User: What shape does this take?
Amino acid sequence: MDKIRNLADLRELKDKLQSKTKLRDKSETPEQMVQIKVAMATCCIASGSRETMNYIVDELDKRNIDAVVTQTGCMGYCYAEPTVEVILPGKEPMVFGYVDSRKADEIIEKYIKGGMLVEGIIPVNYKKID
Ligand code: FES
Assistant: This one.
């Protein structure tokens, strides 16, 4: 942990902790938030999924978009790594393939913020167990 040297450092720490607490509170009802899952198996990471996840987390923060971002194992679409699943509140999951930072930017701007479909959606080939 960084040292607190002045009032500005203390305020910065307070803001960080408050935003983490806010996110934790909201994560108890994830279905009301944008949920993003990034496949992070070893070969996903080799294909750039860590950079994709970091980009998504940073950009959501910069753009003040509340979302729960988690990492998963292989989603089964290894040919299209890095793969990212996005669930908008009340909508079916959408899985996007080949998500680099340019594609992640497009997903955030057009799909998450605008609700418009973007290229790169992989048809989901699984069913959820209720
Ligand atoms: S191992 Fe990366 S998506 Fe399958």
